[in-house]
Design a protein that fits this description.
Blueprint (H helix, E strand, L loop, with lengths): L12 H27 L5 H23 L13 H15 L5 H20 L2 H19 L2
Length: about 140
């Protein structure tokens, strides 16, 4: 499906797949964070378990986006594709700097919500989720 609206992101199958790739990359960074912090005994088994379960949810939603990308195309998002990807990548980069498990849980929960709203293909909930991810990343970066 060709892009027909360059001012709005997620408006083609390719854009949805690109977002799924970015979400998967953020999950990869989060997984490495959990492994590193668990091995360094900076998080306990229960925290690691909760984080791994949440990261798996992010991956599951991203995988769903790959499989249903044609149904997840959004019309009139109001954000460019680059803006969508920038917000996801801000979260991914912020994950590397997180010191406490609670912060990781919060940003991963925001990523689960974002992936789910993209899957639903409804602009309003996607925009709200994007803003939560952006706010969460900014909050972590300010610490």
């Amino acid at each position: 499906m060709a892009k027909n609206d360059t001012a709005n992101g997620l408006n083609s199958v390719e854009d949805v797949i690109e977002a799924a790739d970015a979400i998967t990359n953020a999950a990869d960074v989060a997984l490495q964070w959990v492994i590193n912090h668990f091995e360094a005994r900076q998080i306990d088994q229960a925290e690691a378990h909760e984080l791994l379960a949440s990261i798996n949810q992010v991956r599951h939603m991203a995988n769903t986006l790959y499989a249903t990308s044609g149904d997840s195309v959004v019309n009139g998002l109001g954000e460019t594709q680059q803006s969508v990807l920038n917000i996801i990548n801000e979260a991914k980069n912020t994950i590397r700097t997180i010191k406490k498990a609670k912060m990781m849980i919060d940003i991963i929960a925001d990523m689960v919500a974002l992936a789910a709203t993209i899957n639903a293909g409804k602009p309003g909930p996607i925009l709200a989720s994007l803003m939560e991810v952006k706010k969460g990343a900014a909050d972590i970066a300010s610490i």
